[in-house]
Design goal:
Shape: globular
């Protein structure tokens, strides 16, 4: 019973870690709700009225979610600076509340400054957000000069309670967040292996469904790897440790993706295309039963389950003879003589399991330190020696690249500030026509649709989601207002619940977040005795108006078209792809060592930005179906390219430390066509009038010059590199058609 209880707790812990990597959403929700609850607990015994309780709750929420720095010291400085900004903002709101023209002009100036402040990093963003939201708070509660001293005291209490929650009650260090992200990576890795086991066992009619689960698991694992990379600098004690963790996470990710690809190939009549793992909805190739003896199939299933167990138990800190036995058996597949009798494609899967076990061993050593080596077999000892040699070769080289500084209205922060100011002015005028008392809701909606958006398409989609969530929230508010009535503390409890749900669902669904915000506001109106059906309907009207004004401003004031932004990001991705590919092949050809992990990380980040920018094109509501399919196909091809580039970089990183891997100077010539094609596509995307063509021709392997007579054409490692180069070359050529780049055969 006790063991069963531990097993259930372990499964629940794994699911929670996988669903909320780093527990970032849970922490944000608990910290914000805790700050609000603590503020109410302090103010209520002091006899604060409902208006001040609502103001304190809103101020505590703003003071908590506005802070974005990762280190505690900068967080404390920003919070300390935020208090005088908040007090100045609420004071100006109270003074200008009755002066319509002057107050409106100041509000527009404040909005411009708040958005422009993003140029100064997280602190500028936070202070601008605090200034805007607290000014909005003064309008919401109807602040007056007479009530200003009490209101300033309430805001001071709210900031103090936010500090207590942030630095004492729900204190989170960068190292702690990174630790939880590493647990999430292991959890998602185990889930991906589970999906791969399901793919192995799936009937032919169910392969597409199983493949979609593998595809989703691969994407979720990559997402967690990127989150870890973003936290390495703050969460590790030194650059060397950061690079070690980065390398081991990359090794595990590549090994897991390669295992899925080889497993699909083993079930297919021919080698599976890497694109199948990246293109949503892509059908699986024709598959049948695994072409292997029943004994080999059973062994393969057992070893996949053993690999998953190895990931889970290593993540839980388990050790012992049983775990060592699992690890040793799987690592043995890296030696050719230990492979079961099976077709070559199935033996490749066993080799991939061995590489996956090696990646898990390296991950555990990097994250948890040295392990007990008493039960090691020769294969395990060899793997440890390889990992130790790689670790010793890691240095703390650091590259800095200067970026061209944009000036004037071309700077994104300046452009966004002008757009928001114009949109807010329109929303202000329209909102006044709808309601002289609630006009600020339109301004808030206009402000919000511009947050974290960079193109007209993104603003359009966000505005649509905002309106939809608001309509649903109004319906919920109507029901809740009737049920709660004037039960103050019941209403506050529900508000806290909705605020937690708002922060927990914000990264997942903007529509859900808007729903919870509107439902909470309906309860706040009830507490302020200003609730009515007409008020909630007005809320929808003002929100729709504000979203429309934001879209109009984005479309006609210094517009950034979605096509233009995606093209710029696409060129960046292609440039990063060239950097990684050239750097890896140059090192594999005998060139000097380079910081390939950093280049691969830059490629992943650029591809993530492009993926986010194409969401308006791939959104279900888009009427341009062909354009949506093209965008999905292009992004999937680029993800395929990125996978092969990462694999090349990982192989190149092994070169200085593995005597079994020798440089092959011929590889430098084999990659030239691929690099030229990438550059041609980038030139055509950057300038549609550019004269650029993609060249096709013989296989990459055939481009290698033959060795001297009597020696092998190339070894196993060079063969692996050539396979990645071949797939990369095919994917790059595949980009030409959807992007409108001519394809020509080589001239003889």
């Amino acid at each position: 019973m006790r063991a069963a209880g531990r097993s259930v707790r372990t499964r629940l812990r794994v699911r929670l870690a996988a669903s909320d990597p780093g527990l970032l959403r849970l922490t944000a929700g608990l910290r914000t709700v805790g700050a609000i609850a603590l503020t109410l607990a302090v103010l209520a015994p002091l006899g604060a009225d409902i208006t001040h309780l609502v103001a304190g709750a809103m101020a505590a929420m703003v003071a908590t979610f506005a802070i974005r720095e990762k280190q505690r010291g900068p967080q404390a400085v920003t919070l300390a600076l935020g208090l005088p900004v908040a007090l100045a903002s609420v004071s100006l709101g109270a003074l200008l509340n009755a002066r319509v023209v002057v107050g409106d002009v100041f509000f527009v100036v404040l909005i411009f400054c708040a958005v422009y402040g993003r140029r100064f990093g997280d602190r500028g963003t936070a202070l601008g957000l605090i200034g805007f939201q607290v000014y909005f708070l003064s309008l919401f509660v109807g602040a007056t000069v007479a009530a200003l001293p009490e209101l300033c005291g309430v805001i001071s209490v709210a900031f103090g309670c936010s500090a207590v929650m942030r630095f004492a009650v729900v204190a989170v260090s960068p190292a702690g967040i990174l630790q939880r992200l590493r647990q999430a990576f292991r959890a998602r890795l185990s889930q991906l292996i589970s999906a791969q086991i399901d793919l192995l066992d799936a009937a032919p009619d169910d392969v597409d469904k199983a493949l979609e689960a593998v595809r989703e698991g691969t994407g979720r694992l990559h997402e967690t790897a990127l989150m870890i990379q973003a936290r390495l600098e703050e969460g590790t004690p030194d650059e060397s440790t950061a690079r070690l963790v980065q390398r081991r996470v990359a090794d595990a990710e590549i090994a897991a993706e390669r295992l899925g690809l080889l497993l699909l190939s083993a079930r297919s009549a021919e080698r599976a295309d890497t694109l199948t793992l990246h293109l949503p909805g892509a059908p699986a190739p024709p598959v049948g039963r695994l072409p292997a003896p029943d004994e080999a199939t059973a062994t393969l299933r057992r070893d996949l389950q053993a690999l998953r167990e190895l990931v889970l138990r290593a993540g839980a800190g388990d050790s012992g003879t049983a775990l060592a036995h699992l690890r040793n058996r799987l690592l043995g597949y890296r030696d050719e003589e230990n492979l079961p009798v099976a077709p070559p494609a199935v033996q490749d899967v066993f080799r991939a399991i061995g590489e996956g076990a090696r990646a898990v061993l390296g991950l555990r050593t990097a994250l948890d330190g040295p392990q007990d080596e008493s039960d090691d077999t020769p294969a395990t000892t060899r793997s440890r020696e390889e990992l130790d040699a790689e670790d010793a070769a890691i240095d703390a080289r650091e590259e800095t690249e200067g970026e061209e500084e944009l000036a004037g209205l071309q700077r994104p922060t300046t452009r966004a500030a002008v757009q928001v100011a114009v949109g807010s002015t329109l929303a202000m005028v329209g909102g006044e026509l709808l309601s002289a008392q609630r006009w600020y809701w339109a301004v808030l909606a206009c402000w919000i649709v511009f947050l974290n958006t960079a193109s007209t398409g993104e603003i359009l989609v966000k505005g649509y989601r905002r309106v939809l969530g608001t309509v649903l929230g109004v319906l919920a508010g109507i029901v809740l207002a009737g049920v709660v009535g004037h039960h103050t503390w019941t209403a506050f409890a529900l508000v806290l619940l909705f605020i937690f749900a708002m922060f927990y669902t914000a990264p997942l669904s903007y529509t859900l977040m808007s729903f919870f915000v509107t439902a909470a506001l309906g309860l706040l109106y009830t507490l302020l005795h200003t609730y009515s059906l007409s008020v909630l309907v007005l809320r929808v009207e003002e929100t729709a108006l504000g979203a429309a004004c934001g879209i109009i401003a984005a479309a006609f004031v210094l517009p950034v078209r979605t096509d233009r932004r995606t093209n710029e990001l696409l060129v960046t991705v292609l440039e990063r792809l060239t950097d990684v590919t050239e750097g890896a092949v140059d090192q594999l050809s005998g060139g000097p060592a380079a910081d390939l992990l950093d280049k691969a990380r830059d490629l992943d980040q650029a591809l993530g930005d492009l993926r986010a920018a194409t969401q308006p094109l791939t959104h279900p509501i888009t009427p341009l179906r062909a354009r949506r399919d093209t965008a999905r196909y292009v992004v999937a091809l680029l993800e395929t390219c990125a996978y092969h580039a990462r694999s090349l970089a990982a192989t190149a990183e092994l070169l200085p430390t593995h005597p079994s891997i020798a440089a092959d100077p011929r590889l430098r010539g084999a990659v030239r066509r691929t690099v030229r094609n990438i550059e041609a596509i980038a030139a055509r995307v950057g300038d549609e009038h550019a004269v650029a063509e993609v060249e096709t021709g013989p296989s990459i392997a055939s481009l290698l010059e033959p060795d001297a007579a009597g020696t092998p054409r190339y070894g196993r490692i060079t063969g692996r590199v050539l396979r990645h180069l071949e797939r990369l070359d095919e994917a790059v050529a595949g980009l030409a058609r959807p992007l409108g780049v001519p394809v020509v055969a080589p001239k003889r």
